Amino acid sequence: MRLATVRIDGGTRAAVGDESGWVLLDEPDAQELVVSEGWRERAEAALRHPAREDVDPAAFGVPVPRPAKVFCCGLNYRDHIVETGRAVPEYPTLFAKFADTLTGPVDEIVVRDTAKLDWEAELAVVVGSEVHRADKDEAAAAILGYAVSNDVSMRDWQQRTLQWLQGKAFDATTPIGPHLVTADAIDPKAGLRITCAVNGETLQDGNTRELVFDAADLVSYVSQITRLQPGDIILTGTPGGVALGMEDPRWLRDGDVVTTAIEGLGELRNTIRFA
Amino acid sequence: MRLATVRIDGGTRAAVGDESGWVLLDEPDAQELVVSEGWRERAEAALRHPAREDVDPAAFGVPVPRPAKVFCCGLNYRDHIVETGRAVPEYPTLFAKFADTLTGPVDEIVVRDTAKLDWEAELAVVVGSEVHRADKDEAAAAILGYAVSNDVSMRDWQQRTLQWLQGKAFDATTPIGPHLVTADAIDPKAGLRITCAVNGETLQDGNTRELVFDAADLVSYVSQITRLQPGDIILTGTPGGVALGMEDPRWLRDGDVVTTAIEGLGELRNTIRFA
C-alpha cells in the first residue's frame, strides 16, 4: 500500500494508493492518518473500490510532515566503506535533522550561502507506532514504511566544525517521498537499487542490501536512546558517489536537477535554486 | 520577570513570578503563555497585585516543554578553550537534542547502559518570537529569557562515533529550569557565575562573560540555517571542570546529587538513578 500527503485546495489531504492511482481520505496528511483508529482497514477498504484519482506529481508533499524526531545515519553502505579503506563500524553514526528540514518530492530546493552543495540519496524509514527500548523484532514491527530521501548537504557548513548538523539542517532542503510504501509491501534487505542522478547523469548507484545497519537495526538502536513515535523518520545513509568523494568535486549549481530513486519506492526530482 | 511551568492537579499551569513568589495563570505552560495575545501585559498586571503562591520546588517542570528545536553549542568558554591549548573557534559547534531529552529542575535523572555519565552546566537561551536569518540585534530582540541547564552526557555513547548526538539525547536526562528569567531582567554578557557541584563539591566554576559566542550570536547563527520559533532552546556550552577532562574521571554514580547554578537564574538539583 502507498501512503501520501497531497496538497489540494490550499490545504493537504492524506491519500492511499496503489499502482493504479490514489484515493483521497479525510485526514489532513498521512501522519494523522496512521494514528487514527482503524486506519489500515479503512485504507484497504478504499483500495478495494476501483475508483482512483490522478494526482499531479507536484502536488505531493512531505508524507509525514511533523516528525518530532528525524535521525540520520552516516557511513552505512558496506561497499562504500570498504572502497574508502575504512573499517565497518560497530555502531551507527547518528545526527539529527528537524521537521522543517524536509521538503516535498518535486519541490525546488532553495539554498544560499554555500559553495559546496552535495547530494546523498538515502532510504528513509518511517516509524508507525511508539517504540522504546525495542529488540530487533519489535523494531521491525514498528516500521510503517519506506520512502526515498536525499540528505542534501552544505559541505562547507558541515565541515566548519566537528559536528555535521549545521550542514544538514537548512530549512526545506531534504526532499522525501514521493510517498511511503508500507513495510508489508517491500523489503529493503532483499536489495533495492538506489540511485542519484544530476541532470540525467547517474552519480550514485547502490543497493540497500549493502546497509551495515538495516532499518530494524536502526530503529532498535535509536529506541534505546529515545522513544520514537508515529511519523518519526530515520534516514539510513548514502552509498558512494557523492561530490565530496570526487577528486575534483562537482558541487551542485543553480538549475541542476537532482533525481533520486529507489527501486519500488519511486523517485524524487528536485531543481536546485540559489537564492 | 520569572516564567515557569508548574505541575499541579495532574496537569500543568503557566506561572509568572518575582522574588516574592508566584502567580498561576490560565495557560497550561509558559510556552503557551508566551504565544498568547498580550501575555506580557497580563503577566505584569498579575505581578502588580501582592498576592503570591508558594510553589514546591519539586512542582516545577520544564519551562518550555515542547521546543521544536533544541540546539546545543560545544566548546564555547574562552578560558576553558585556552586552558586546553585549543584555538578559539571561528564557528559554533552545533548539535541537537529533542524536547523529550529535557526534564524538570529537581527531577531524578534515570539512566542505564552507561559507565561514563558526566555533567555539563550550561546557560540555556529560550527564543520568544519567530526569528529567521536575523542579524545580531534582531536575534537579541527575539530572546525571551534564560535558564539553567545541564547537558548530562553519556560519554561512552558520545564517543562511539564521530557524532555526539547519541550520547546527548537520552530521554529525560537534560534538566532545565527552575524557571526562565526574561531577557529584560538579566544579561549573561555582564557576567554570571555558573557552577556545577556533585554531592556538594563544586567541580565547575565559570562565568558567562567567557562565552565565545554569546546568546545573540548563537540565535543569529542558528537562524541563518533554520527558522526558530517561540520555545526553541539553545544551550550555550559548558565551562571547564567536567569529568571527561579529569586525569582519572569521576563519572556520576547512582545516588549522586548534581547541583547546577547560574547567578540570578537559580539552581537545578537532580539526583542520578541507574535503572
TrEMBL record, chains A, B:
UniProt keyword Disulfide bond present: no
InterPro entries linked: FAH (IPR051121), Fumarylacetoacetase-like_C (IPR011234), Fumarylacetoacetase_C_sf (IPR036663)
Any GO molecular function: hydrolase activity
One Pfam family hit: FAA_hydrolase
Keyword Hydrolase: yes
UniProt keyword annotations, A-Z: Hydrolase, Metal-binding
Domain annotation Fumarylacetoacetase-like C-terminal: ranges: 69-272
Tree of life domain: Bacteria
PANTHER family reported for this sequence: FUMARYLACETOACETATE HYDROLASE DOMAIN-CONTAINING PROTEIN 2A, FUMARYLACETOACETATE HYDROLASE DOMAIN-CONTAINING PROTEIN 2A-RELATED
Similarity field: Belongs to the FAH family.
Protein name according to UniProt: Fumarylacetoacetate hydrolase family protein
